[in-house]
Amino acid sequence: MKIKTGYLYHIKDEFFDIANDENLMTNHERGKARPTYFTIKDKNILWFIPLSSKVEKYKKIVDKKTKKYGFCNTILIKKIFDEESAILLQNAFPAIEKYINHVHMRNGKPAKVPPKIEKEIESKFRELMLLKKRGINLFFANIDKIKEQMLKELNNTCLENSSI
Asked: Cα separation of 93 and 60, whole Å?
Protein backbone atom coordinates (compact mmCIF):
# COMPACT_ATOMS: atom_id res chain seq x y z
CA MET A 1 0.00 0.00 0.00
CA LYS A 2 1.44 3.40 -0.94
CA ILE A 3 0.76 5.80 1.93
CA LYS A 4 0.37 9.47 1.04
CA THR A 5 -0.07 12.67 3.01
CA GLY A 6 -3.60 14.04 2.90
CA TYR A 7 -5.41 10.73 2.59
CA LEU A 8 -7.60 9.21 5.28
CA TYR A 9 -6.84 5.85 6.84
CA HIS A 10 -8.06 3.54 9.59
CA ILE A 11 -5.74 2.06 12.23
CA LYS A 12 -5.62 -1.52 13.47
CA ASP A 13 -6.71 -2.15 17.07
CA GLU A 14 -3.35 -3.87 17.57
CA PHE A 15 -1.56 -0.49 17.42
CA PHE A 16 -3.38 0.83 20.48
CA ASP A 17 -2.50 -2.31 22.45
CA ILE A 18 1.19 -2.04 21.51
CA ALA A 19 1.47 1.74 21.98
CA ASN A 20 -0.16 1.34 25.39
CA ASP A 21 -0.82 5.05 25.99
CA GLU A 22 -4.00 5.86 27.90
CA ASN A 23 -4.09 9.32 26.30
CA LEU A 24 -4.45 7.92 22.79
CA MET A 25 -7.88 8.19 21.24
CA THR A 26 -8.65 4.53 20.58
CA ASN A 27 -10.87 2.96 17.99
CA HIS A 28 -14.34 3.70 19.40
CA GLU A 29 -15.81 0.30 18.81
CA ARG A 30 -13.31 -2.53 18.72
CA GLY A 31 -13.40 -4.11 15.30
CA LYS A 32 -15.15 -1.12 13.72
CA ALA A 33 -13.32 1.24 11.39
CA ARG A 34 -13.61 4.42 13.44
CA PRO A 35 -12.30 7.05 13.69
CA THR A 36 -10.80 8.14 10.40
CA TYR A 37 -7.27 9.54 10.52
CA PHE A 38 -5.73 12.26 8.36
CA THR A 39 -2.20 11.13 7.55
CA ILE A 40 1.09 12.98 7.22
CA LYS A 41 3.99 10.97 5.83
CA ASP A 42 7.30 12.02 7.41
CA LYS A 43 10.10 9.75 6.16
CA ASN A 44 9.51 6.35 7.84
CA ILE A 45 7.03 7.66 10.37
CA LEU A 46 3.40 8.37 9.66
CA TRP A 47 1.49 10.90 11.74
CA PHE A 48 -2.18 10.23 12.27
CA ILE A 49 -4.61 12.98 13.21
CA PRO A 50 -8.13 11.83 14.12
CA LEU A 51 -11.24 13.32 12.58
CA SER A 52 -14.39 13.41 14.68
CA SER A 53 -18.00 13.84 13.71
CA LYS A 54 -18.75 15.19 17.21
CA VAL A 55 -18.40 18.74 15.89
CA GLU A 56 -20.65 20.45 18.45
CA LYS A 57 -18.61 19.00 21.32
CA TYR A 58 -15.36 20.29 19.81
CA LYS A 59 -16.80 23.67 18.78
CA LYS A 60 -17.44 24.32 22.48
CA ILE A 61 -13.81 23.46 23.28
CA VAL A 62 -12.57 25.70 20.46
CA ASP A 63 -14.78 28.55 21.73
CA LYS A 64 -13.54 28.09 25.29
CA LYS A 65 -9.86 28.09 24.21
CA THR A 66 -10.42 31.07 21.92
CA LYS A 67 -12.00 33.05 24.76
CA LYS A 68 -9.14 32.15 27.09
CA TYR A 69 -6.14 32.47 24.72
CA GLY A 70 -7.48 34.40 21.73
CA PHE A 71 -7.08 31.38 19.43
CA CYS A 72 -7.21 27.59 19.29
CA ASN A 73 -4.43 25.78 17.44
CA THR A 74 -5.19 22.23 18.60
CA ILE A 75 -8.58 21.64 16.93
CA LEU A 76 -9.77 22.68 13.49
CA ILE A 77 -13.40 22.56 12.38
CA LYS A 78 -13.56 22.12 8.61
CA LYS A 79 -16.00 20.91 6.01
CA ILE A 80 -14.76 17.63 4.54
CA PHE A 81 -16.93 15.67 2.11
CA ASP A 82 -19.95 17.96 2.60
CA GLU A 83 -19.90 17.53 6.40
CA GLU A 84 -18.16 19.42 9.15
CA SER A 85 -15.44 17.48 10.96
CA ALA A 86 -13.36 18.22 14.01
CA ILE A 87 -9.69 17.71 13.17
CA LEU A 88 -8.05 16.84 16.48
CA LEU A 89 -4.42 17.89 16.16
CA GLN A 90 -4.00 17.51 19.92
CA ASN A 91 -4.70 13.79 19.51
CA ALA A 92 -2.07 13.18 16.80
CA PHE A 93 0.29 10.24 17.15
CA PRO A 94 3.04 8.52 15.16
CA ALA A 95 2.85 4.99 13.78
CA ILE A 96 4.27 2.88 10.99
CA GLU A 97 2.62 1.45 7.92
CA LYS A 98 2.06 -2.04 9.31
CA TYR A 99 -0.57 -0.62 11.70
CA ILE A 100 -2.76 0.77 8.94
CA ASN A 101 -5.89 -1.30 8.58
CA HIS A 102 -7.10 0.25 5.32
CA VAL A 103 -7.56 3.45 3.38
CA HIS A 104 -10.89 5.20 3.87
CA MET A 105 -12.98 5.01 0.71
CA ARG A 106 -15.35 7.65 -0.63
CA ASN A 107 -17.42 6.94 -3.74
CA GLY A 108 -15.21 3.95 -4.55
CA LYS A 109 -11.96 5.94 -4.37
CA PRO A 110 -9.38 6.52 -1.62
CA ALA A 111 -10.56 9.53 0.39
CA LYS A 112 -8.35 12.60 0.23
CA VAL A 113 -8.81 15.87 2.09
CA PRO A 114 -9.14 18.95 -0.19
CA PRO A 115 -5.68 20.51 -0.85
CA LYS A 116 -6.43 23.81 0.94
CA ILE A 117 -7.51 21.98 4.13
CA GLU A 118 -4.59 19.54 3.80
CA LYS A 119 -2.13 22.47 3.78
CA GLU A 120 -3.83 24.06 6.79
CA ILE A 121 -3.73 20.81 8.79
CA GLU A 122 -0.06 20.26 7.92
CA SER A 123 0.80 23.85 8.83
CA LYS A 124 -0.99 23.65 12.21
CA PHE A 125 0.60 20.26 12.92
CA ARG A 126 4.11 21.61 12.17
CA GLU A 127 3.33 24.60 14.42
CA LEU A 128 2.44 22.25 17.29
CA MET A 129 5.63 20.23 16.67
CA LEU A 130 7.72 23.42 16.82
CA LEU A 131 6.02 24.43 20.06
CA LYS A 132 6.81 20.97 21.45
CA LYS A 133 10.49 21.41 20.55
CA ARG A 134 10.40 24.67 22.53
CA GLY A 135 8.96 22.85 25.56
CA ILE A 136 5.26 23.58 25.03
CA ASN A 137 3.60 20.21 24.56
CA LEU A 138 -0.02 20.39 23.39
CA PHE A 139 -0.28 16.71 22.40
CA PHE A 140 -2.23 14.38 24.67
CA ALA A 141 -0.29 11.18 23.95
CA ASN A 142 3.40 10.68 24.68
CA ILE A 143 4.38 11.05 21.03
CA ASP A 144 8.12 10.88 21.72
CA LYS A 145 7.81 7.49 23.43
CA ILE A 146 5.51 6.13 20.73
CA LYS A 147 7.77 7.44 17.93
CA GLU A 148 10.82 5.83 19.57
CA GLN A 149 8.87 2.57 19.88
CA MET A 150 7.82 2.71 16.21
CA LEU A 151 11.36 3.51 14.98
CA LYS A 152 12.75 0.66 17.08
CA GLU A 153 10.17 -1.71 15.60
CA LEU A 154 11.01 -0.47 12.11
CA ASN A 155 14.76 -0.98 12.73
CA ASN A 156 14.14 -4.50 14.04
CA THR A 157 12.12 -5.32 10.93
CA CYS A 158 14.90 -3.97 8.71
CA LEU A 159 17.51 -6.03 10.59
CA GLU A 160 15.40 -9.17 10.32
CA ASN A 161 14.90 -8.63 6.58
CA SER A 162 18.61 -7.99 5.97
CA SER A 163 19.60 -11.26 7.68
CA ILE A 164 17.31 -13.32 5.46
From this structure: 23
CA distances from 7 to 85, 126, 144, 162 (A): 15, 17, 23, 31
Architecture of domain 8-162: Roll (3.10)
Of the candidates 157, 159, 146, the one whose C-alpha atom is nearest the C-alpha of residue 11 is 146
Burial class (CB in 10 A: 0-12, 13-18, 19+), 12: middle
What is the C-alpha separation between 156 and 12, in angstroms, rounded?
Answer: 20
Burial of 140 by CB count in 10 Å (0-12 exposed, 13-18 middle, 19+ buried)? middle
Note the pTM of the prediction, 2 decimals: 0.90
Taking the C-alpha atoms of residue 65 and residue 17, their distance in angstroms, rounded to an integer, is: 31
Q: Exposed e or buried b for every residue in 46-71, given b needs 16+ CB within 10 A? A: bbbbbbbeebeebeeebeeeeeeeee
Any bridge partners for residue 120, and if so which? none
pLDDT tens, position by position, 26-66:
665 544 556 899 999 998 899 999 999 999 999 999 999 99
- Measured CA to CA, the distance from residue 76 to residue 55 in angstroms comes to 10
The Cβ of residue 116 has, within 10 Å, a number of other Cβ atoms equal to: 9
